[in-house]
Every structure is written in C-alpha cells, then in structure tokens.
C-alpha cells in the first residue's frame, strides 16, 4: 500500500525538527559545562596566587574570624610581574587584572574589605598600611586598586609539614608528661636546653627594649629591632626580620624625653641601692639548686622501693609508751586501778598459800 507523499514530508519535517531541538538542547547543555570548567580554573588560579610568595599579604580579624588579605595595588603589580600565573586560565588568560579580580569576587573566592578605624590616631600622620581589624565593604563588591583590601574566602590547603606537625604535637605533650621518668642525663639535656632558650629570648627582648629607649631618648627616633618578634599574625620569615620599619609617627617632645630620662636614672639608682648582697644571692642560689636537684634526682624506682628500705626500725616499747601518753589522763588512771587490783589479788593468793603450809 502506498503512503501519501504529504505524510512522508510531514514525517521528514517532524524528524528534522526533533533533531534540531535535540541539537539545541545539546547546545544549551554545553555552556554550563564550560562554566564549570571556568569555575575550576579560577579556583585553581586563586589557590596558585594565594600560595605564591610574590603576593604580599597579612592576617587580620574580620567579624570575629582571622582572614588573610592583600591590597588591590599589590594584586595589580603581582599580575604584572608574574604573567605566567594567568596561563592556568587557558581561554581567559587574556583578561585584564580588574576583570580577573571581578570574576573572583563573583565566584565568592574573594571579598572586598575595608578598615574599621578610618580616623587618624593621635600622633600619627596617616592611616595604618596594614590594618589589624577589617570589615566587609558594604557599598560595592568590585575591584579597586586605590585603598582597597581583599580577603580570601576559601580554606587554604595545608602543606605536608603542617600535617606532620599536627601528629607531632600529641607526641611532644606525652614526652613532656613523662619527663620525671627520664634518665638523669636526658633530664640535664632538657633542662639546660630549655633554660638556654628562655635566657636567649629574655635577653633579646631586654636588649631590644634598651636599644629602643636609648635611641628614643637620645635621638627622638622609634626604632624597634626585630619589629615582628611579638606579632601574632606574622609569618616565620617576617618574625625574624631584623631591620625595623620606617618611623611614620611624629617625633616626641623634648620635655617627655627629659622626663623619661629622669625616670630611667631613678629606677637604675633604686635597683643598684636595693640590690641583694652576696649572702642573700648565695642563699637563693642554694635554694634553687636544691629544688632543681630534687626534680632531677627523683625516679619512680626510688619512690617505690628506696623510700621503704631507708626507713629507720620502729621501737615497739617506745611506740607503746607514746601511745599511752597520747591516750590522756583518764586512760592512765584506769590502768593504775587495774594494776592495783591485780597486785592485791596476787598478795591474797600468796598469804593463803602460806597459811596452808
């Protein structure tokens, strides 16, 4: 049976329409995959930039959380000096620095921040370069190069040494708790090592304070050697940076410098006048040596067996006399009455035996 030509044409059109619809659907599915790839690429780009040493960053407190942030101008100079970091973006590697930063902001990999304190403190000429407290910028989450801060919002991948260190801390805690059972030589090594480190830290802080005070009084300059030695948010490299930062504050008045000079001289004279003499120093040294010796010479073997063996023998007679003395006068009177009664009974028995004889 022959089919009509019109039906064949309608079937061809319907099939072509369905194929075009399928192609359209497949074409509409392509962009999400492409966007997902782009999202992964920008995530990798953000992680690579954050781990790079060329981008200067700091740690601050933002809404009761510690965040790592950088300045907008530092990000621009970083991309300019390290264009190879953009190669990871593949098709988007030709984007401008501002466009890349805006994409990171849109994907919530970055958040724009602003300083909490926006007014100058007394005695300062300009605001802090790296504020310690930040807040989220409420106006517009867009990239800006001038006086803008941007904080990373994703968790940074921890390196291998930090993971190993996290397993090492419980072992160190257990080793500290087991210090009393160490051999004597190990105790000496631990004691002198810790004492040497503590003495070095205190000496460094003292010399640092003396140098600051001397230069502040004599030259009117605020010079802190090892400026980040007490900073909480500094990295290990910044912690041991020796050279101080440039003094941005106003020089102190000569009256305040003179006042603190007099105070320093008076304190030194009082300490010199009331310093302990040689005998007091020797007593204190002997007392501390005895305490240290008690800690070093203690051992569980001595605590379990040596103390029992070294106890003196107990005299039973003296113990009985001591117990009777401690009983009190009432107990002694009763004991005397019992002794007298026993004596009378023995005397009567002896008399009766003589009469019978």
Write the H/E string, N to C.
HEEHHEEEHHHHHHHH
Helix content percent band: 55-70%
N→C terminal distance = 165 Å
Low-confidence spans: 1-39
Radius of gyration: 43 Å
E-strand count: 5
What's the rounded overall pLDDT mean? 75
Which outline best applies?
flat
Strand order of the largest sheet: 1-2-5-3-4
Content-based structural category: alpha+beta
Q: How much beta, percentage-wise?
A: 5-15%
The largest pleated sheet is described as:
5 strands, mixed, barrel
Count of helical stretches: 11
Helices and strands in order:
Layout: H1 5-51, E1 58-62, E2 66-71, H2 72-81, H3 97-106, E3 110-115, E4 133-136, E5 149-152, H4 160-177, H5 184-218, H6 236-239, H7 254-273, H8 278-297, H9 300-309, H10 316-327, H11 329-356
Parallel strand pairs: 1-4
Antiparallel strand pairs: 1-2, 2-5, 3-4, 3-5
Describe the structure.
This protein is of the alpha+beta class. Helices cover 60% and strands 7% of the residues. It has 11 helices and 5 strands. Strands 1-2-5-3-4 form a 5-stranded mixed barrel. Strand 1 and strand 2 (66-71) form a beta hairpin. The protein is flat and about 110 Å long. The chain starts with a helix and ends with a helix. 6% of the residues are buried.
Brief synopsis:
The protein has 357 residues and is of the alpha+beta class.
List descriptors:
357 residues; 60% helix; disordered N terminus; 5 strands; alpha+beta; single chain; 7% strand; five-stranded mixed β-barrel
């Amino acid at each position: 049976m022959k089919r009509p030509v019109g039906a064949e044409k309608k079937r061809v059109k319907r099939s072509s329409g369905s194929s075009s619809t399928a192609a359209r659907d497949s074409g509409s599915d392509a962009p999400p995959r492409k966007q997902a790839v782009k999202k992964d690429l920008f995530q990798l780009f953000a992680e690579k930039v954050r781990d790079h040493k060329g981008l200067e960053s700091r740690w601050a407190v933002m809404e009761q959380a510690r965040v790592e942030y950088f300045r907008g101008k530092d990000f621009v100079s970083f991309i300019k000096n390290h264009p190879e970091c953009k190669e990871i973006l593949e098709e988007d590697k030709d984007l401008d620095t501002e466009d890349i930063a805006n994409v990171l902001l849109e994907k919530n990999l970055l958040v724009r921040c602003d300083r909490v304190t926006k007014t100058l403190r007394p005695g300062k000429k300009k605001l802090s370069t790296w504020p310690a407290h930040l807040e989220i910028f409420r106006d517009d989450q867009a990239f800006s190069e001038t006086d803008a801060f941007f904080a990373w919002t994703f968790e940074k991948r921890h390196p291998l040494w930090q993971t190993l260190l996290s397993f090492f801390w419980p072992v160190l805690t257990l080793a500290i708790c087991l210090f009393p059972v160490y051999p004597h030589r190990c105790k000496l090594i631990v004691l002198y090592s810790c004492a040497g480190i503590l003495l070095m830290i205190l000496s460094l802080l003292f010399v640092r304070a003396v140098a600051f005070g001397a230069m502040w009084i004599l030259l009117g300059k605020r010079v802190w050697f090892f400026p980040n030695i007490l900073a909480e948010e500094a990295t290990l490299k910044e912690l041991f940076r020796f050279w101080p930062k440039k003094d941005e504050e106003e020089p102190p008045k000569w009256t305040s410098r003179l006042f603190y000079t007099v105070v320093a001289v008076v304190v030194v004279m009082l300490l010199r006048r009331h310093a302990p003499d040689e005998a007091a120093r020797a007593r204190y040294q002997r007392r501390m040596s005895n305490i240290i010796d008690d800690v070093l010479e203690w051992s569980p073997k001595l605590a379990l067996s040596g103390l029992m063996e070294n106890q003196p023998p107990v005299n039973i007679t003296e113990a009985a006399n001591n117990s009777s003395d401690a009983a009190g006068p009432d107990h002694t009177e009763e004991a005397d009455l019992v002794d007298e009664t026993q004596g009378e009974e023995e005397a009567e028995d002896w008399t009766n035996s003589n009469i019978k004889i």
